[in-house]
Amino acid sequence: MRTAYRVLALAIAIAVALQVASIALAGFTVAKDAGDGAVIGADYTNFGQSYHSIAGTAIGLVALILLIVSFLTNVPRGRALAGIIVGLVAVQFALAIASFGIPALGVLHGINGLAIAGVAAAAARRSSEAVAPSTAHV
């Protein structure tokens, strides 16, 4: 189960990196399309935007699975880290929704995404640590 925990935590960290890449792709695609004369309106979308949205949902699901797995393994502080990841993902969804009304909140959405990646990477590292023995040797 420690391996499952590590793989899930790494998957979240990598997925967040891909999220950063996809939203950069989305922004540059909007700029190019507008420069080419495309009308950018409410019905406009591009691959980067679509990927970002779908992958964000997948990250949420993987975070919940990580939390479940955290109760089946003995990773040091594994449950706490998985809980923090789930909490940060919940904040991420709220910030995403709020950012459409208040675009400046998108900055916090980006920073929070980096926090998710950092905590997920820390969780993956923790899964490699030795578990402290339950009895002391004299």
In short:
With 138 residues, the chain is mainly alpha-helical. It has four helices and no strands. The model has no long low-confidence stretch (mean pLDDT 93).
Explain what this protein looks like in three dimensions.
Helix 1 (2-35) runs antiparallel to helix 2. The longest helix has 34 residues, at 2-35. The two termini are 30 Å apart. The protein is mostly helical. Helix content is 75%, strand content 0%.
Features of the shown structure:
138 residues, mainly alpha, 4 helices, 75% helix, 0% strand
- Strand fraction equals under 5%
Question: Tally of extended strands?
Answer: 0
Fraction of helical residues: over 70%
Largest sheet: none
List the helices and strands and how they pair.
Layout: H1 2-35, H2 47-70, H3 78-101, H4 106-126
Helix pairs in contact: 1-2, 1-4, 2-3, 3-4
